[in-house]
Amino acid sequence: MTAPALDRTPRAQAADALWTAAELAAATGGRAQGDWQATSVEIDSRQVQPGALFLALPGTVQDGHDHAVAALGQGAAGLLVSRPVPGLPPDAPLVMVPDTMAGLTDLAATARARAPARVVAVTGSVGKTGTKDMLALALGRSGPVHASVLSYNNHVGVPLTLARMPAPTRYAVLEIGMNHAGEITPLSRLARPHVAIVTTVEPVHIGHFGSVEAVADAKAEIFAGVAPGGVAVLNRDNHQFDRLAAVARTAGLEIVTFGAEAADVRLLNVVLGDDLSTVQADVAGTRLTYRLGAPGRHLVQNSLAVLAAVRAAGADLALAGLALGEFRAPPGRGRRHQVQLRQGSFTLIDESYNASPVSMRAALDLLARAEPGARGRRIAVLGDMRELGPDATRFHVDLAPAVAAARPDLVFAAGPEMEHLVAALPPGPAPTHRAAAAELIPLLTAIVRPGDVVMVKGSLGSRMQPVTAALLGLAVEPREGQD
């Protein structure tokens, strides 16, 4: 079984090769079979395109080795494996290593060492993915940029992002997340960023930590791997600022702040629209006016962190400001869809990827600022926030004022904790509560009409994404896009 990429000569491949078999063997300490080159790296055989390196990673549910033959059949240039694979031809292009997960980490370290990139790492309780996407746009105007895709921010996603980084990369943007203490430190040391951003610290995953202070300590692990002379970009408005700053100083980092009047990068003025924001900021003495192509005060705040990081990375601030006009909220994190019905359209604000008290309030603020069309209504569709520990009920009840401030005409809620929020709402239109999100689908699809603005928000475990999918499925001519 021969992959299409193997039909090309090594000389022809050299210009666009990400890894050669010899480089892979040297990086991992493995044994190469064949002389081949790969142009990309994949861990999911379904994503393999001709020329890819397929990493056969072990898993709790599936083992990548079971899909190695399929990956080669789809055009993989070669395989990284740790054991013989039944069905592979004797001369299959591969590199044999003792442990493929360790091999991925070795590739990541080698890729990081060979690239001259200025690396920016982003963590925080909320806003990581949006900030990462803004940074990729902003830095991309100054040179070749490489960034995490989707939310590849864990022990597999971070090394995979690095392993995919081309050698000529000038700027790299990595998202680093965690659910438990100790998870960020090894990823930071692998990435060795020049700039580390902590967007904010909030009671997210607090069920695993017990206190917001413990969450802050876990986020501060990002400073462990920052290169000497590096910069920590911190939210001056966050209650955990002093705690984070103390760790950054101990690590010998320069601290650059964003947000408040006393911050290095501060907001001077903002006009919040229902589909974008116009921002004026002072960036360490330089005034910059720019448009942010997605709405929300929380995104404006994170754009200040982006500008701080752009400056710290030595990129062009003016070009970065222009690029931010192209930013669109990531799927499931505020992405807007105009859903066309037979008699008109309604707006869907998709916040279904995840939820925490702070992000729930931000999403409700988006709903409050959205203007329904003729005969349209504001409709809040809310699911439980997860991993909030023993205070989960209180966190849900405390959302009642924010829900009321959003001025919804209709409220739909799902989950055992949301029942407490519904009970705490002030007098008004009677909310609808169901035990599970799936039970809301027939109710919503039956009542939504042209002019409505529907905001769907909940933790991933609350399964709000099928609600969003059902609403998108109402489209006469399905189309996706930002307002």
Low-confidence stretches: 1-14
What's the count of strands? Answer: 22
Number of distinct helices: 17
CATH top level label of the largest domain: Alpha Beta
**CATH fold description of the largest domain:** UDP-N-acetylmuramoyl-L-alanine:D-glutamate ligase
Average pLDDT number: 93
Q: How far is the N terminus from the C terminus?
A: 47 Å
Which strand order does the major sheet show?
A: 9-10-8-11-12-13-14-15-16
Protein structure class:
alpha/beta
In percent, how much strand structure appears in the residues? 15-25%
Helix percent reads: 25-40%
Examine the secondary-structure arrangement and name the CATH architecture of the largest domain.
Answer: 3-Layer(aba) Sandwich
Structural domains: how many: 3
CATH superfamily of the largest domain: Mur-like, catalytic domain
Radius of gyration, in Å, reads: 24 Å
Question: What is the strand and helix layout of this fold?
Answer:
Blueprint: H1 10-13, E1 19-20, H2 21-28, E2 31-33, E3 37-38, E4 40-42, E5 52-55, H3 68-73, E6 78-81, E7 94-96, H4 100-114, E8 118-123, H5 128-140, E9 145-147, H6 157-163, E10 171-175, H7 184-191, E11 195-198, H8 212-219, E12 231-235, H9 241-250, E13 254-259, E14 265-272, E15 277-283, E16 286-292, H10 297-312, H11 317-323, E17 335-341, E18 344-351, H12 357-369, E19 378-383, H13 392-397, H14 400-405, E20 410-414, H15 416-424, E21 432-434, H16 441-447, E22 453-457, H17 465-472
Parallel strand pairs: 4-5, 5-6, 6-7, 8-10, 8-11, 9-10, 11-12, 12-13, 13-14, 18-22, 19-20, 19-22, 20-21
Antiparallel strand pairs: 1-3, 2-7, 14-15, 15-16, 17-18
